Amino acid sequence: MSLWGGRFSAPSAAEFKQFNDSLRFDYVLAPFDIQASQAWAKSLQQAGLLTSAEQQQLHDALGDLLKAVQAHPELPLSSDAEDIHSWVEAQLIDKIGATAKRLHTGRSRNDLVATDLRLFCKATCEQLINANLAAIQQLMLFAERYQTAPLPGYTHLQRAQPIMAGHWALAYVQMLQRDVSRLKEMRKRADVCPLGSGALAGTTAAIDREALAHELGFRYASENSLDGVSDRDFALDILHCAATGMLHLSRIAEDVIFYCSGESGCFAMSDRISSGSSLMPQKKNPDLFELLRGKAGRVLGHQHALQTTLKGLPLAYNKDMQEDKEGLFDALQTYQQCLQMLAFAMPELSVNEAHAKQQAQLGYSNATEFADYLVSKGMPFRDAHHVTGQAVLFAQQQGQPLEDLDIDTLRGFSDLIEPDVYAFLELDYGLEQRRAIGGTAPSAIKTALKHANDWLHAAEAASKHVRQARLSDADKICELIAYWAAQGENLPRDKADVLQAIQSFAVAEIDDEVVGCAALYVYSTGLAEIRSLGLFPQAQGKGMGAELVAFLLWKARELGITRTIVLTRVPEFFGKLNFRLTVKDKLPEKVMKDCELCPRKDNCDETALEYLL
To answer: Which of 2, 261, 277, 443 is catalytic?
Structure first.
């Protein structure tokens, strides 16, 4: 059934229909189209354009259709409908008759498809964040496993300086962390609902668009109807995230391919992620990583294609915009699959530690340490660089490493050189010296792993149940605080105090219902305290307390706080989260702020713990 046939006296040509119709790919939007239609029916009823009985009939029929689509996602493909919107409406008409024809009142396919696509992108964004977190976790496990395994480091694909394999993996952890950050920013910008914009000029129906937006899980309703139906920035945003993420996966793949090669041999792949040659029986090929590298071009191409499609379009909907979907769907599916394959492959990758250590010592990779030695003896670095170059040239001509040259030969380059130079030329010495933040020393890697773990725990919490509190959460936060104050666990706080401090709070949700909260209070000295932590009884035992703490610890790190404390009657809970005992006498800020107000001040049973960020 066509949604636009009344104006026409002849049917569409089969050739045009095949070229024009989009159901073959936009069928994946079915759950979102149904969701949008349920919310629209509710808005129509609230506007007096549907009776309660009609709205309920539509809601139930759409619910049944959603279950059918969830059970059989390709169900729409058995139809010859023009697009997913036509299919949904036809299904409803078949099921409930004339009432279904009232659903399209006041809306257009233009605002409906823009809404469907935003809902799809928001849902896919969550999946991509979780896939990134899984990949990050596997990279971190690799880094932890090989944090003290030396590896040759390269610039210009020439041996440069030794690094630890853990340091190598953590470099990609940083990249994927930024990918998660980009996806979160994209999700914020996409959190705008176009439904109710009509074809281009808005709707004549008395729709509460803010309520409609909230019903669909959006933060805001679009403020301009033309922009609402025209905007595809959100699709470009998520494609940019996918393209950048695939660039990073491609770089990981290139490194692994090289380190697994016969020329390097520093990494080894298990048979589970390798393939062989149909002709050469000795081959073990890194096909998985080559595919990660190759699929990056596919995703980058889809990004560029949509940019090109949109660049010359006038406002409102144009049929060109149908081209926003196939490439988008393929790019996001490809990106998610590649992230999943990276997470799968990392445990199957190992470092050939003895061989890699030997390789790290080759190529005069200790030359910088030789120059540093001369600097430590008082030689200007530029002169030390020149002298070291002369020594390396001589050693190359002799076919010897620097550390094998005898002391008399070395003194020929500078009389500052003493036998203690050999300690500087040891592999472990150079690695251990790079202990500054971001360095490859084992101590620096240990710190970086701790920071990465803190970040991962906070990101996992934010991707599940925890978010920054908003003003609309104040009543629930007050209810939680009052509940635990009645149990003697918290000090009471009035709503004005909570509203004033709302930025310090995080909340935990189940099915969009606030069930827990906690606050990060920052003292004037820079010390921070986690306070007002509490969950309603039905939410306990689900890990949400730990998620709230992880979220606030990361927030403290972003604020530049180095020490966070808690006073608690359940120290074992915080001990499991790596807090350690401290002395209350070291917390004068806390004593001055709250202890004088506490009814138990003369018989305090709280334990002080701290977390060093």
So the answer is: 277
Residue 49: half-sphere exposure toward Cβ, Cα within 13 Å: 20
Contacts of range 322-330, beta carbons closer than 8 Å, 24 or more positions apart: 322/22, 324/117, 324/232, 324/235, 325/22, 325/25, 325/26, 325/117, 326/25, 327/239, 327/301, 327/302, 328/117, 328/121, 328/235, 328/238, 328/239, 328/302, 329/25, 329/28, 330/298, 330/302
Going 255 to 259 to 264 to 269, the CA torsion angle's sign is: negative
**Cα–Cα nearest to 480, from 540, 535, 551:** 535
pLDDT tens sequence across 93-116: 999 999 999 999 999 999 999 999
Count Cα atoms within 13 angstroms, Cβ side, for 480: 28
d(C-alpha 242, C-alpha 186), whole Å: 11
The secondary element (H helix, E strand) that includes residue 57 is: helix 52-71
Contact 157, 255 (CB under 8 A): no
Span 247-269, pLDDT tens digits:
999 999 999 999 999 999 999 99
C-alpha to C-alpha distance for 599 and 429, rounded to whole angstroms: 57
Cβ 548 vs Cβ 506: under 8 Å: yes
Distances in Å between the alpha carbon of 441 and those of 283, 432, 531? 35, 5, 36
Q: How far apart are CA 82 and CA 104, in angstroms?
A: 16
Does 156 participate in catalysis according to the annotation?
A: yes
Give the contacts of 425 (CB within 8 A, at least 6 positions apart): 366, 369, 370, 373, 402, 403
Please report, as a single letter, which amino acid is at residue 62: L
Dist. CA 150–CA 435, nearest whole Å: 15
Tens of pLDDT, residues 153-179: 999 999 999 999 999 999 999 999 999
Question: What per-residue confidence (pLDDT) applies to 440?
Answer: 95
Q: Which amino acid is at 220?
A: Y
**The token pair that represents 353 in the structure block:** 């530690």
Question: What is the spatial distance between Cα 573 and Cα 613, in angstroms, rounded to a whole number?
Answer: 18
User: Does the structure show a pLDDT above 70 at 551?
Assistant: yes
Active site residue 214: no
Nearest-angstrom CA–CA distance, 112 and 36: 7
Distance CA 490, CA 471 (A): 21
CA distance 261 to 276: 14
Q: How far apart are CA 507 and CA 349, in angstroms?
A: 39
pLDDT at 11: 79
H-assigned helices in 437-543: 442-464, 474-486, 495-500
43: exposed, middle or buried (C-beta count within 10 Å: 0-12, 13-18, 19+)? buried
Q: Which of 371, 365, 363 is nearest to 387 (CA)?
A: 371
Sign of CA dihedral 424, 428, 430, 433: negative
Asked if residues 459 and 140 have their Cβ atoms less than 8 Å apart, the reply is no
- pTM for the whole structure: 0.89
Residue among 9, 156, 278, 524 flagged as catalytic: 156
Which pair of structure tokens corresponds to residue 390?
A: 């002369």
373: closest CA among 337, 417, 409, 414?
Answer: 417
What confidence tens digit (pLDDT) does each residue in 587-608 have?
Answer: 765 554 555 555 555 556 788 9
Q: Are 140 and 439 in contact (CB under 8 A)?
A: no
- Could you tell me which residues come within 8 angstroms of residue 281 by beta carbon, excluding any fewer than 6 positions away? none
Q: What is the DSSP string of 77-91?
A: GGS--SSHHHHHHHH
